[in-house]
Each structure stands twice: as structure tokens, then as C-alpha cells.
Design a protein that fits this description.
Helix 8 packs across helix 13. The strands form nine sheets. Strands 10, 12, 14, 15, 19, 21, 22 and 23 form an eight-stranded mixed beta sheet that branches. The protein has a seven-stranded mixed beta sheet with strand order 34-35-36-37-33-27-38. The N terminus is likely disordered. It is an alpha+beta fold.
Length: 799
């Protein structure tokens, strides 16, 4: 009877299990968003050019990892009394601590937290000696371990110096693991270090709420202590409450006024009450996923699920706000912090476990005197709190504290967060605009007050524009196998690349989908530089080097090299007046397309720069690379020379118009990991016939080229209606492709687009329709054309 269903006599179909012995197995869930470590193991990242401090106990093991290789580390230790003694780690000091001290003179949370830890313990580093480990020849992922002999504090630094644009002595992060001998004896530190000296420390226990006051200008920080815990936030103007006026923070009013689902750092940062008064401004957000559509959880919600009398946030709010004579409500509107919700294609709201990790927070600034309510949501009957309600913590800070505006950027799902940074050119561009957007962990200008995207666009087409592109990721690829690695991971033939030359290339996975596109600079035979759009490119290169056992270093230099693009017909005339080059280097006037030169600003004594004849505009143009510390001086020199010639600053909005006209592709629109270079319109980067060496994805690309399914084409719209990336393209009822990018072209005086369509309908001249609304109720006629739309023969960039 094993092959028959009980009581029916039916034969069991293939694949249907029979009797299964034993208890059920737990759900198998991979959660890369929260890095899992064995019990008793702690992990810290020592930032490049920065430091961290960690308490240690007898028997602990300190494990230090040179993640990218070639990075010196300096270690200092102090005992319980604050006395400096590296012998705590079982070693003797072998170097000065100049590198450690230098890291603590810098701005930023890393240095501030370490300085605070040293101050609390009365530790003076003025006469400190350090234990130096690792060096410039250390391979990636080299580790060293030290056993702790006495309780104390260990401080680890990853020191470095400013890297010249033509050098490759970059500074990279280290990983620190503390393996606890007795985890139970460790003094638990649930909360991250305060951002400054707190005015209030308020613990909101699981399934409760609290009211607290914040004065105008002060800051308050809502912290998810253990991760994946929701916290509803409600605020009232204290001035209005004193008059008996109850105008709570209103998510609907806020969405209407700021035009986004919920406020975030930057321009759409304020939240308003029902009387349209701004109450709070979001300064920082390290989670990036919240809800402003649903109410705080209510008694009715639990009753409808069959959980009668379940504690809920709305009832908790009623109790907490009662002393302020605010009438109770069955459900409170709120900013539901850390709540992971959305609306799907069927118009249904959905929710899942929060994205927040332990220590994630949102930092607000009070715009008037406030009474605030914060909850630690009690929901344990669905995924809202990861099925496990925990605590929330609130800290408040004085109005005179200074905090950068930031969101958290993570390279990969399990990477540590990096707060949004300002580029070296930020202060120069910020004189002309407050319209900044977060891009890949940096604040970049979107448009400028005095001009606007159209004027910025025309400056690049007719005169010149200067654009901040510092967010591009740079990696130094060095060592005897540098060329071998790049030849195997890039689609272009890197062996043909001469010193001083640049090549644009794709980087593909085994199946032919693209990792990234970017440029390779050759500084010398074994010295290459990869510049791409994504941080993962460097990680991927390191993974391939490790698999192949190559002797090569791939080290990030993004923070050592910031760059502006100077684009337009007059770009050469501007730069030739400010860039000096040695006799053995080409001048700006002599520099050929996809070549670079090493120079200095104005003369022999000026700050060093690397100038490449590259760009993203379809015009004659250059990119100027320098260390961030020299960026303001270099911008000022270019601006002083260029402004009389019509030079204007340009932002990302204008750059998007320029690059679409020029047929230049962008990650996430024209390509992703499911798109091969042929489908992305850059098949010229895959020389299958002339490149004899194997490279990753070659076999897949041969197959995909022989059997193409989709093709990137241009679209000319017949009317003036706006279209956008993602719009569907039809012939009759059938969808045959979609728009990838679109813009209204100022110079061509029509709406144009890049689109990916089925090869069956990719012939130039084919008439198609772009679907709007639901794709069928409104159609816009268009014609498939050659791209680039502007200067298809690239005569201007070559001029």
C-alpha cells in the first residue's frame, strides 16, 4: 500500500512523498542582509584611513584580516587602568603610532567614536608605540591572530597617505574579528556609540510606547536595537497642544507635499502635520525602508485575525499621550519606521520582515517644539517584526550638534553600511545648488539654481560643462599577474593596451550577462586601473584572482581619486590653460581620444592630476582626476578660466539627456546581469575573432551572438508626449520590447529613446507603439531608428 493513497486505492503520482519519519524540519531561510557569525564571534570593519577600538578580555583571540592586501595595520592596546601596553596581545611594540594618531585627527564617526572611547578610559596616545602588521606586499585575505593576556582595550588603525593620481599606493579597509573566550562574561554593548553627547537616553521596551519632548532645532535618533523591529512615530507641535489644537503628523499630507512615499534625507526630507506645518526633518536614515500608508497597529487588526485583546501600538499611544489631553483614537496615523510594506501590481498592500539590522537608525531634527511618541511594535503574529518583538531606543541631541545628511550605502547585502559622503568637489558645486541626490553613496548635484538642466545641457553642447563624477568606482590592479587577470575578466583585448591608453570594455559573468561596463587605464606593464560604476566590480575581480591563484592585488582607490568631467567643444581650450605636463607626457592639446596624461595644475609645483580624454556626453571632453584634498583648488582653477568662455556646472539631469542622445548606456536601464553586451548595444567591446585568449563568458557570448533574441535600438517619437524607461513597446496587441531610457532632445527638438526589442522587429524604419497607462488604453506612435541619435559617427568626440 506504500504506493497508494490511504483509503482511496489510487496509485501515488511520481514525486509525491510517502511516509516521512521524524519531526518536521525548520524553515530554511537565507538572510544575507544580516551577516551570521558563530556564537561568541564579533566582526568590525577598520575603515581605510580610519580606526576602531574594541574592549577585550583574557583569553579572547584578536584576528586581523588584510581584506584587499597591501594594507599596513597599526595596533595599540591599553589595560583596564588606561596604561598603554601592547604586551596585552602577547607582542612587543615595533613601530611608532603616528599612523594611529593621524587617523584620529580626521573627521567622521569612526574617529569620533574612537576618541570618545579613549577619553572615557583616560587613555593618552601622545607617547604611544604600536605593533605594525602587514605591508605593501601582503596578499589579499592574509590574517594574523593574537591572544589577549589581560582585560583592556585594543585599537586597530588602517593608516595611509594621500595617493597621487598616477600612483597606486591606495589605502584600504581591514577586517577585525574578536573571538571571545567567555562570551557570557563580555559586557554587552547593544547600542552603537552615540552620535554626540546625548541629552536623553530613552529605552522603549518591547510592546510598549513612550512620549518624550524635543525642542526646536534638537535632534532625535530612533534606533532599532536588535534589528527587524518596527517603531511607529507620531509628533505634535507643543505650541498647538498648549492651545488645545491637535494636529498630528500626517503621512498623507507629507506624501502630497514632498512627492515621495515617505520623507528621506535630501530635498524631500520634511514631514508635516494636518495643518501643513513642518514638524520634523529626516537627517539620516541607515535602513531606507519604511511605511507611511498604514496606521499604527490597532486592536481591530488583531481581532480580525482572531487574537482578541492583543496589545497594539495605537492603544499604547493613547496611554502615552493621555497626559497631554489628547483624545484617544482607535487607530493612529504614523510614520511606521522600519516597516517593510509596498503595493503590488494588483493594488494590494503587502508586507514582509523589516530590512533594518541591529543598530540601524533614523535621525530627525525637530522644526518646532515637539511632543513625540515612539513605539516598539508588539506584533508577533506576522513577519512585521521578524516574528519577535524587541526594544527600540531613542536618543536626543543638542541643537548645536552638526550631523551630515546621509543614507546608508551597502556594496553587497551583507556589507557594512557607509553613510553618504561628500566628494572632494562638493563644496565647490554646493555654492551653486542645493539640489543634490544620493548616488552610490555620494551626494551629487542633480541641477543648478541659476541654469537648470536645459541650460546646463546647452553649455555642454555649445561651450563647456563641468560635472562631478567622483562616485565612479576606482580599483588599482597591480602585480605580475595584473594583465592576466584583466585579460581573463574583460571582454576587450587588454594585451593590446599601451601605457597611457584607455579602453572601454564590458565585464561579464559565465552566462554572458554583464557585471559592469567601464574603462581600463594602463599606467605601466603591471599597473592597471579599473573604473566602473559599481563597487562590486572590484570584489568580483578579487574573487576571480583568488580562484585562479594569481599574484595580483585589486585595491579600492575611490576615496583617493575624485574626478570631474569637463565636456564640450571648448573643453580643450579651457584645460590647456590650467594643466601643465612634463616634456615626456602629452599636453592636453596633444592628447588623443581614449588616452591620458599625467600633469599638474598650472606648473611644476601644482597639485598632481591625471587627465583622460574620455567622457559621457558625446562631445569633445576630458576627465580630471585628483586627490580629494586638492579638488577645490582644481575646480576653482578650471572655473576661473572657463566661466568667461561659457563654462557652466551641470548635474545628473543634464548628463542623462546628453548620454541618451549620444547612445551611451547606463547600468540598470540598458544592461544588467541578464543582458549581454550585444543586447546592451556595445557588441563592439566583444572582439570574438581578434581576441585569441579565453575570457569569462566567451562561450556563452558566442552562442548568444549566433542566436540573438533582443537588440538595443533607437526610437523617434511622433509626438511630444513624455515616455519613460520601462514603458512597453507594441506592434498590435503583442509586446515586442520596452523603453530603457528616454528624453526630450533639445538639439533634435523631439522625444527620443533607447529601447530593447525583439530582433524580429528591430529593423530600422519599423513602426511601433509605446504603451502608456495599462499599455493598451493609450498608445504613442514611434519609429525604430539607428542610434546614437546625435553624432552617430562620433566626429565630435574625435575632433
Amino acid at each position: 500500500m506504500n504506493d497508494m493513497f490511504p483509503m482511496t486505492g489510487l496509485v501515488r503520482p511520481p514525486g509525491v512523498p510517502g511516509f516521512i519519519a521524524g519531526p518536521p524540519k525548520p524553515s530554511q531561510i537565507l538572510t544575507p542582509s544580516i551577516r551570521t557569525l558563530p556564537p561568541g564571534v564579533e566582526r568590525y570593519v577598520v575603515p581605510a584611513g580610519g580606526s576602531v577600538s574594541v574592549p577585550v578580555y583574557v583569553g579572547d583571540v584578536v584576528k586581523l584580516v588584510d581584506t584587499e592586501g597591501g594594507q599596513r595595520a597599526e595596533m595599540i592596546a591599553a589595560d583596564e587602568a588606561g596604561k598603554l601596553d601592547v604586551d596585552i596581545l602577547g607582542e612587543k611594540a615595533n613601530a611608532s603610532a603616528d599612523g594611529v594618531r593621524a587617523t584620529l585627527t580626521r573627521d567622521g564617526e569612526s574617529a569620533r567614536n574612537v576618541r570618545a572611547a579613549l577619553k572615557r578610559r583616560g587613555i593618552d596616545l601622545s607617547a604611544a608605540k604600536a605593533l605594525a602588521v602587514f605591508g605593501e606586499d601582503t596578499p589579499a585575505k592574509t590574517t594574523q591572530e593574537f591572544k589577549v593576556g589581560r582585560k583592556g582595550l585594543v585599537l586597530i588603525a588602517a593608516p595611509g597617505r594621500a595617493m597621487a593620481p598616477d600612483a597606486q599606493d591606495t589605502t584600504t579597509p581591514l577586517e577585525l574579528f574578536i573571538i571571545r573566550a567567555n562570551p557570557q562574561a563580555v559586557e554587552k554593548q547593544e547600542l552603537p556609540e552615540p552620535l554626540a553627547e546625548p541629552l536623553q537616553d530613552i529605552r522603549i521596551d518591547a510592546a510598549t510606547s513612550q512620549a518624550y519632548t524635543v525642542r526646536a532645532g534638537e535632534f532625535f535618533q530612533v534606533i532599532d536595537v536588535e534589528g527587524r523591529e518596527c517603531s511607529d512615530l507620531q509628533c505634535f507641535s507643543m505650541r498647538k497642544l498648549d492651545k488645545g489644537i491637535v494636529h498630528p503628523l500626517d503621512p498623507t499630507t507629507t506624501r502630497t507635499l514632498v512627492g515621495v512615499g515617505y520623507p528621506s534625507p535630501g530635498l524631500p526630507s520634511k514631514a508635516f502635520d494636518t495643518g501643513f506645518e513642518p514638524l520634523v526633518e529626516v537627517i539620516r536614515d541607515t535602513c531606507g525602508r519604511h511605511d507611511a500608508f498604514g496606521l499604527a497597529c490597532t486592536n481591530r487588526y488583531y481581532e480580525d485575525m482572531g487574537y482578541f485583546g492583543h496589545i497594539n501600538c495605537s492603544d499604547n499611544f493613547n496611554k502615552s499621550i493621555a497626559p497631554y489631553n489628547v483624545e484617544a483614537r482607535p487607530g493612529w496615523m504614523a510614520l511606521n519606521l522600519f516597516f517593510n510594506t509596498g503595493i503590488d501590481d494588483t493594488n494590494a498592500m503587502f508586507f514582509d520582515e523589516p530590512w533594518s539590522r541591529p543598530g540601524d537608525y533614523v535621525l530627525f531634527r525637530a522644526l518646532t517644539d515637539l511632543v513625540c511618541l515612539s513605539s516598539a511594535c508588539p506584533c508577533d503574529v506576522d513577519p512585521a517584526n521578524g516574528w519577535n518583538p524587541t526594544d527600540i531606543h531613542v536618543r536626543t541631541y543638542a541643537a548645536n550638534e552638526i550631523f551630515s545628511r546621509a543614507v546608508a550605502f551597502r556594496m553587497t547585502p551583507d556589507a557594512d553600511p557607509q553613510l553618504t559622503r561628500e566628494t572632494g568637489f562638493h563644496s565647490s558645486f554646493a555654492k551653486h545648488t542645493r539640489d543634490l541626490v544620493e548616488y552610490k553613496g555620494f551626494w551629487l548635484p542633480n541641477s543648478f539654481h541659476d541654469n537648470g538642466p536645459i541650460a546646463e545641457y546647452w553649455a555642454a553642447r555649445e561651450n563647456a560643462a563641468i560635472i562631478d563624477l567622483s562616485a565612479l568606482r576606482k580599483f588599482e590592479v597591480t602585480g605580475p599577474d595584473a594583465e592576466n587577470l584583466m585579460q581573463y575578466t574583460m571582454t576587450r583585448n587588454i594585451r593590446k593596451l599601451a601605457a597611457g591608453q584607455v579602453v572601454y570594455t564590458a565585464m561579464c559573468y559565465e552566462h554572458g550577462g554583464m557585471v559592469d561596463d567601464g574603462t581600463v587605464f594602463r599606467l605601466a606593464q603591471d599597473n592597471l586601473r579599473w573604473i566602473g560604476g559599481d563597487e562590486y566590480g572590484g570584489e568580483w575581480l578579487r574573487e576571480q584572482a583568488e580562484k585562479l591563484g594569481l599574484k595580483v592585488w585589486v585595491r579600492s582607490s575611490t576615496d583617493q581619486q575624485h574626478n570631474v568631467a569637463v565636456q564640450g567643444p571648448l573643453s580643450r581650450d579651457i584645460l590647456k590653460q590650467v594643466i601643465w605636463t612634463r616634456p615626456d607626457q602629452p599636453t592636453v592639446e596633444e592628447l588623443g581620444w581614449f588616452r591620458f596624461t599625467i600633469g599638474r595644475l598650472h606648473g611644476f609645483e601644482g597639485p598632481p592630476v591625471l587627465v583622460s580624454r574620455t567622457g559621457y556626453s558625446g562631445e569633445l571632453g576630458y576627465e580630471v582626476f585628483c586627490h580629494p584634498s586638492n579638488a577645490e583648488e582644481i575646480f576653482d582653477a578650471i572655473w576661473k578660466t572657463g566661466e568667461p568662455l561659457g563654462l557652466k556646472p551641470a548635474g545628473l539631469a543634464a548628463l542623462d539627456m546628453l548620454r541618451i542622445e549620444a547612445g551611451l548606456i547606463f547600468a540598470g536601464t540598458e544592461f544588467d546581469d541578464q543582458t549581454d553586451p550585444f543586447e546592451a548595444g556595445i557588441g563592439f567591446t566583444v572582439p570574438l575573432k581578434s581576441k585569441e585568449d579565453d575570457f569569462i563568458g566567451r562561450e556563452a557570448l558566442i552562442r548568444r551572438k549566433e542566436h540573438p533574441q533582443k537588440k538595443l535600438v533607437g526610437l523617434d517619437m511622433h509626438g511630444e508626449d513624455a515616455i519613460a524607461g520601462g514603458d512597453c513597446i507594441h506592434i498590435g496587441r503583442a509586446q515586442i520590447g520596452e523603453v530603457t531610457s528616454a528624453t526630450r532632445s533639445p538639439i533634435l527638438r523631439k522625444t527620443i529613446a533607447l529601447a530593447r526589442v525583439d530582433v524580429t522587429h528591430a529593423e530600422f524604419g519599423t513602426e511601433v507603439e509605446v504603451g502608456k497607462l495599462d499599455g493598451h488604453q493609450k498608445r504613442l506612435p514611434a519609429t525604430i531608428v539607428r542610434f546614437p541619435h546625435y553624432d552617430p559617427d562620433k566626429t565630435r568626440v574625435r575632433s
